Amino acid sequence: MAPRTDPLSLEVIELIGTVVARYYEEYERAAAEHSLTGAQARVLGLLSLEPMPMRRIAQKLKCEPSNITGIVDRLEARGLVERRPDPLDRRVKLAAPTADGLATAADLRASLNFAREPLAELSTRERTVLRDLLKRMLGD
Question: Which ranges carry the HTH marR-type domain (predicted)?
């Protein structure tokens, strides 16, 4: 299928790019308030959902596992993350948030207003349609 180059598609692409850029700017700012890099904040946020091995973190964040190891090392040094054996396979180490890490991840989520405030202006039906369209675009 040929890429869409009509004016409406180009406008939608530009708007999506602007939303993503603003989200990352706010995420970086929120992370800095906790003396974290954006990458550290993203790893911590991901781990706050469930502990996982470095390789899986790298897959989810689409980066090299060696980068994740360094990020987890720095989060561990700050007392926000710990490594523990995987109960299903003791050869595998899981990165897991500490109590301080969970609290920091919650603070980060609470401080991200950029996406939340505009979404609040949309009805439940509009948010549902937006969610479904985004999922469709991502092939989910």
Answer: 9-139
Instruction: Yes or no: say if 76 and 83 are a contact pair by the CB < 8 Å rule.
Output: yes
Which DSSP letter does residue 84 get? E
Name residue 93's beta-bridge partners. 85
Cα(33)–Cα(19) distance, integer angstroms:
21
Q: Which two tokens stand for residue 93?
A: 């180490």
44 in Cβ contact with 75 (< 8 Å) = yes
Which domains does the chain show, CATH number per domain? 23-112 (1.10.10.10)
Residues 1 and 81: their CA atoms lie apart, in Å, by: 44
Closest CA to 34 of 127, 94, 103: 103
* Residue pLDDT, tens place only, 93-138: 999 999 999 999 999 988 887 766 777 888 999 999 999 998 998 8
The whole-angstrom separation of Cα 108 and Cα 31 is 7
pTM, rounded to two decimals = 0.78
